[in-house]
Amino acid sequence: MYLDIESVKEAAERLGSFHPFFGITFLVCKKGDIPVGKSIPFPINAAEETFLRAHYKPDVGSNFFYQPFRTSSRSGRWLSPKYPYSGSQTNRTRGDLSLAFIHEKGTDQWGWARGYVGALRAKLETDKSGPIPAFWLAVWLYRDKNWSEGTAPKDVVKHFFRDFSITSEESHSLFATETPRFTPFLSEESFSDRKLLQFIGSAPDAEPDEGGTLKLLRLRGVGPCDPLEFEPADRLSIITGDNGLGKTFLLESAWWGLTGQWAERMAYPNRDEGKKPASISFQIAGPSSEGKVTAISFDYETQRWPAPKGRPTIPGLIIYARVDGSFAVWDPVRHTTMQGGEGNPALLFSNRDVLIGLEGKIEGLLRDWTRWQHSEPVVFETFKSVLRKLSPPDMLPLTPGEPTRMPNEARPIPTLEHNYGTVPFTNESAGVKRVVTLAYLIVWAWNEHKVYSSIAGKQPQTRVVILIDEMEAHLHPKWQRVILPALVDVTSILSSEIQPQMIIATHSPLVLASVETIFSDTTDKLFHLELRDETRRVSFRQIPFVPYGRIDRWLTSDLFELRQARSQEAEKAIEDARKIMESPGPQKEEIRMASHALVRSALPPNDEFWARWTYFAEKNGVEL
Question: Fewest beta carbons within 10 Å, which of 42, 264, 316, 365?
Fold first, then answer.
């Protein structure tokens, strides 16, 4: 049994007001068994270094130590490798704590002064920190110890006192021995400092964590919704809202937060804000770190958003499908290999670039499709599998045929097999082109990432971020009803280890209805942008995902805000008729006029409202 991560986190917080001396030097001297009233040779610097390596080094790859105690250092709680020979030595030889020792300057002779307990107690009182919480200090020190089942908090304290030979006087004068009363604090899962690093942050010399996803995006003084705070879900985030309220802007800002590059036009602060501070903040969480919030303020002098200086977390592979048919791709391996060199790790492709290529960047769908089909069977099989997964219902699966030559084309053109025959890709419908192009970019980006990773001697990332604006663009309602669940499954075709984060903007009730069977409150979120009537300001909020079942009920939900799933004319005619039905003394003439309005609105004879209206009219002496 091991201490659970939440207990260790709490220990780090509980120890935050205490001087580091009590968690390091004091315990090192107790382990070294230095005497009271005289000194002995004791290499205290080396002993502290060994102790710090054993208990205060959550990142074994770093040269720094982490201590959870009080600090005034600019580096925070991460201690320099020289700490035992500098900062700690200063604490031992100067000020109040030096009174606890017998030590001749310039020697390795150390011992406890008579009355050292009183001197240490006085330091705790001066700091107003109170006695040291023995249980929480023990939790920190023994966070990776395997405890026997049934261990209680008091057993942890006893083990700590015994291990460090804490005397009765020390126990009563320096420590708080009370133990907390809470549910079991032990777990069968082995403790890992990797999880602790997600809480305390990375060491100053740590390599950037790779494979991150967007944890937070915060916009101030920029965009239609001001302020805006967006905390995407781990797997699927769906963004809805009327035209012009900022769905695309949110995706563009998310892309910038992840990559540090604008996909096209840079965002500018809102004009009505004058020169008030405008900022974009983002947080990228990695496999071993929650990441830190980075805030970038707009520089009015240069009229630019300054590039973030260093990224504690590098995101995973990012694919952004924009509504105009262009794409943007960001590869973390390109980012790391270009550090200090020339070039932009973000690849921005127009619709034409994706189709026919961009020199030095991408060969293009027409060339790659034909090449994969004839000489790279593994990649081509992946491409075919992705096409099958994304295929529309009521049609043959999207299946590549043999390339063909077309008039005025100097290259073979890929084809697709349909129920009615073989169609060159360049002659396909807009909907088929959009989905096939998306499939191509996903397979191409993943394949390029694997190639670059192999060259760099790295393993491919397991996190992929996919941003898609207007998921439903050009798609028939039947296709809209299946495309998003299919897309969620697509990454498993690339690799079973991939964990996708998808951020999707949509206007379609069919897309919302399509995820009713796969939406999970633990991995997915639904967000809505709306214009508040009372303030005329745009608001952004997460809303509960409620399965409405029928598409017309999605249309009349708060997301799409239609009063009725009918034509605008029929809606008005019905609303006017209802007012008459609710009036205390309806007149026959107004009932007849309302009936004519219902007919003129093309309300079909089988509409359910007719039954109620006919009964009401006849009850009031009007025959229809």
Answer: 264
